[in-house]
Amino acid sequence: MQYHEMINPGLYNYWIVIFLMMIGFYIVIARGNLVKKLVGLNIFQTSVFVLYISMGKVVGGTAPIFGEGFEVFSNPLPHVLILTAIVVGVATTALGLSLVVRIREAYGTIEEEDIHAQEEDF
Q: In a 10 Å sphere around its CB, with 0-12 CB exposed, 13-18 middle and 19+ buried, how is residue 37 labelled?
């Protein structure tokens, strides 16, 4: 059995989710710029969206509308929950960006190290 035969092509979405999660997590941990940290959080959040949406899809499933010839249905609940999460994510990002603007006005920078250095001087 060759290596490529062992990999299930139906699981690529989970590898994409893990890749996006690790990118987002790395950006949040490694970067000192507050805007870049918000971008990292948004990438991490997007990976969770992709995870839930991909888990909610049923192969061969249709919308849950009863009728002739429909036997397999996809559950719409994960998609509805993700729509709500997207709205909450946009609101959270807007709040985070407004806090970054306020921090910039107060400290003159959005770099985490510079803010900590100014706090230690007081």
A: buried
Q: Which of 11, 22, 71, 79 is nearest to 49 (CA)?
A: 79
**103-115 per-position pLDDT tens digit:** 999 999 999 999 9
Burial of 61 (0-12, 13-18, 19+ CB in 10 A): middle
Is 63 in contact with 73 (CB distance < 8 Å)? yes
For 14, 41, 64, 77, the CA distances from 104, given in Å and listed in that order, are 38, 19, 49, 40
Please state, in angstroms and rounded to a whole number, the distance separating the CA atoms of residues 42 and 1.
40
**pTM value surpassing 0.90:** no
